Amino acid sequence: MKITCALEDFNFSEINSDLDVILFEYTQDKSKGCIGAKILREVYDSKLIPHEKAWDLVSIALSVIAADQAGHRKKSPDGWTRNFELTISVIDSIFWNEQKKLLETLLSFLTTDRWELNFVGGGEYPKLHKDAFYQLEDCVSLLSGGLDSFIGVIDLVEQNYKPYVVTQTVRGDGKNQQDFAKKLGNLAQFMTNHNVKVPFPETPASQRSRSMIFLAYGVLIASSLDMHRQNETVTLYVCENGYISINPPITLARVGSLSTRTTHPVVLNLFQQILDNCGLNILICNPYKFVTKGEMLEQCLDQSILENLAHTTTSCGRYGVYKNTHCGRCVPCLVRRASFFHWKGKDYDQTEYKFDDLSQDNENYARFDDVFSMRIAILNRQELGTSKWIGASLSSNLIPDQDKQKHQDTVERGLLEMQKFIGDLGLV
């Protein structure tokens, strides 16, 4: 699929694309897509002064999101792998064309599609507020509304850091995310939504490229800090437990469609290379890459606030489907439930689940695909051993050799948490 993403005044007729997407504006033209219409205002209102390369990176990430929503997997030759030819308008097209092979490798790993990128001029730096200033926080942390990022910000605050938190509102839990930032110390917060609209979008909407835009927002804020202006390194915290970061396919059937790579070390390492090439003094850090979700709960530095608010965080992959309620049976919900079981034992989790009692032997509960697949995974790991069960999830040479065993051990502990939870229900 050939897609061009640019500002509204770009001469789209120069490129014969299947879809034209307007960046940073809405459009009434139903034949075109649009994305990021609110971001210019949010940058202005937040009085930010982002780096030019960081702004280009936002344009690139938005374009990827638009393509991900527009491309239909079922129309591809193998029913899964899509082919994208994506032209993006940026400020510095010469630089980004030098980076396109690295970006294509990152995107291919992240979405399991084939990407061909081309960068053209026409991008514009955002208008700044007359009182814009370099922000005084000492780090940036993504705050997704999920349990892991919530724990990450708690721990940063407890260690006397002053994080600027970045939130992408997509699941109807925006108020919760605002409340988290306030309750953790009235933290500065950048909240936005990409507001993508494309004709005939993929359904259900793809989520595989979501980390690209979330990381780009984080870089946007990190480059706006006074620390960065003074050439000090700014740490961008991307907090997620090590089991989900690797997210090994729990059965062979789930290798493609259901095993996302949002914070996989390969993704973060490739993204770090891009930042380094940009000359941005920003270090991506996942401090929990060797920690399970249950261990994160157990080791959190403020148990009191965690006990009060953990159940109000959001983990579910189908949260919006069930009217902003956790389903209780998708893989993220299962990992969440197992972590609460590890932390406080049975019956402590106060989260409301649509499908609560998974011990019921029917297709909505114990025999639901995710639950049944997880039961099989537990048995397969016991039979094969962890190394063989993980398969190629840790094979990349972009993962340091000294880290591979640590990642494997973390995945094993994460699955053992799941085994205890599932076992208590009598399902293994």
Automatic annotation (TrEMBL):
Cite the source lineage: Bacteria, Pseudomonadati, Pseudomonadota, Gammaproteobacteria, Moraxellales
Q: What InterPro entries does this protein's entry cite?
A: QatC, Rossmann-like_a/b/a_fold
Species of origin reads Acinetobacter johnsonii
Which protein, by its recorded name, is this? 7-cyano-7-deazaguanine synthase
Q: Which domain of life is it from?
A: Bacteria
